[in-house]
Amino acid sequence: MAYRAVIRGVAGVLPDYILTNEELSRMVDTSDEWIMTRIGIKTRHILKEVGKGSSDLGAPAVQKLLEKTNTSPDEIDLLLCATVTPDHPFPATANIIADKVGIKNAFHFDINAGCSGFLYGLAIVTSFIEAGRVKKAILVGAEKMSSIVNYEDRTTCPIFGDGAGAVLVVAEEDSPYGVIDMILQSDGVGRHHLYQKAGGSCYPASFETVKNKEHFIYQEGQAVFKWAVTKMADVAVEIMKRNNLTHEDVDWLVPHQANKRIIEATAERMGLDKSKVMINIQRYGNTTAATLPLCLMDYEKQLRKGDDLILATFGAGFTWGSIYLKWAYDGDKV
């Protein structure tokens, strides 16, 4: 008996407030042309309400998913939340989401793998399912990136947005669908190029850390871009070769939405036409761990049973990876 981890539903939530490039250009020295040319983002959604965190996006996304798939909270064995912006250092945001939606029979925890969080999370969920220990799991990527963005830093503030996306992953015996292969990689050298300095145990919050603006994202853009544009493409091509897939076999590339140029470079290396590439960065920006499920949400109606999908990411750490899966249902019939 062999179990496959099969995605049986997807849902997402975005905050109401939309931050445009025009508004950003009144906050920092930037312009719509500069942002569109270098990153490819037009708008991003921002959670502005005081006292609201990532769980306030993740919980409604999970609730929508349960309702959409006619799944009872009692059926869920595992809830995993990928996030770099947890509500609190502890408890896990997954615990909070589970409580808000009434999931009582599951275990739940967070993972932090930067922008690769959702992909790493899918690998973890798949491992539990293939081992026969979990029958139904929910994986949610939930981020309030605006909480760690310095809106005086023109190099980072145009990039990030807030949002959450969730998928229902089900164990199915000897299924032709679901997760088929995965490649996960990391290199800790990335810790020097992309990080949040303060707020952890090395530099707890203090007057000095706040004054020095050390609770915001720090990024060396050129170094990160160089690594991302190479590694994300490398791993996507590698998983194709391992599974004897040609560019004609791949129906969709589901790439992390960090930079349109990185997405285009990955697709080009894979030999894919742009019509096979999921892109919504222009509307949402980089929602970190939420980018992949939000792509699946936006393109769900175009997905067909048996479609071959390649998921590819690159994130802080550095972390990167790729997953090959076969889609299990016709999205327009949901």
Explain what the structure shows.
With 334 residues, the protein is α/β, with parallel strands linked by helices. The protein is built from 10 helices and 13 strands. It has helices spanning 21-25, 32-38, 55-68, 93-101, 117-130, 207-211, 221-242, 260-270, 281-284, 291-299; strands spanning 3-13, 17-20, 43-46, 78-82, 107-111, 136-144, 162-173, 178-186, 194-196, 217-219, 252-255, 308-315, 319-326. Strands 1-7-6-4-5 form a 5-stranded mixed beta sheet, sandwiched between helices. Strands 8-13-12-11 form a 4-stranded mixed beta sheet, with helices on both faces. The longest helix is centred in the C-terminal third of the chain and has 22 residues, at 221-242. It is globular, with a radius of gyration of 19 Å.
String of helices and strands: EEHHEHEHEHEEEEHEHEHHHEE
CATH-level-4 superfamily name of the largest domain = Thiolase/Chalcone synthase
CATH class of the largest domain: Alpha Beta
Tally the helices.
10
Distance between the termini: 29 Å
Give the spatial strand order of the biggest sheet: 1-7-6-4-5
